[in-house]
Amino acid sequence: MLNWQQAFDACPLIAILRGITPDEVVPVADALIDEGFHLIEVPLNSPNPIDSIQRLATHVGDRALVGAGTVIASSRVAEIEEAGGRLIIAPNLDPRVATETTRRGLCYGPGVGTVSEVYAAIEANAGFLKLFPAEAISPDAVKAIRAVLPRQVPLLPVGGITPATMTGYLAAGAQGFGLGGALYQPGFTPEEVARRAREFFDVYRQWCARAAPDLGR
Length: 217
What we know:
Blueprint: H1 4-10, E1 13-16, H2 22-35, E2 39-43, H3 49-60, E3 65-69, H4 77-83, E4 87-89, H5 95-103, E5 107-109, E6 111-112, H6 115-123, E7 129-131, H7 139-147, E8 155-157, H8 163-172, E9 177-179, H9 190-215
Parallel strand pairs: 1-2, 1-9, 2-3, 3-4, 4-5, 6-7, 7-8
């Protein structure tokens, strides 16, 4: 079974499909996977999200890791797992959600915005940190947070990320991103989503190619 680390190492970009319907989710996910995505999030404030997660998990198998976003109540964790979700992602850090997620062996990605929240999330066994909302957190702030953060804990800016804003965060130490409205919005066709996915990948791969010589020094 594909786990968080394997999926993240293959592609550190999370596709956030806010507003997607169960009938749309499989073709959109196929388009994303074909472009290289391995992490797919269905926020719980989407229409019939548990149905979408179940359809996705059944369809994609080990091609991608599927999970839920906007998980703000621990009571939702069980039904997400039963539907096949393996990621529990939230805009906040809730100890009850963290405890239930850890108890079930799932990966928890809580929202954080300060150094204090970062370390509270680490204590809560977060698999990665969702830096949210990224629109309100500059690359300079990311650099300062990254300087005191254990390297093994991935920091992913989420919120308003576009291909044009990725490079600044990557240079500051971000290790991946959650991609929302610039990647998918309700009504986007699979072809449109694939085109937008390529734009993100082009920027990410170009940055990695430029950064590789410096990282090796």
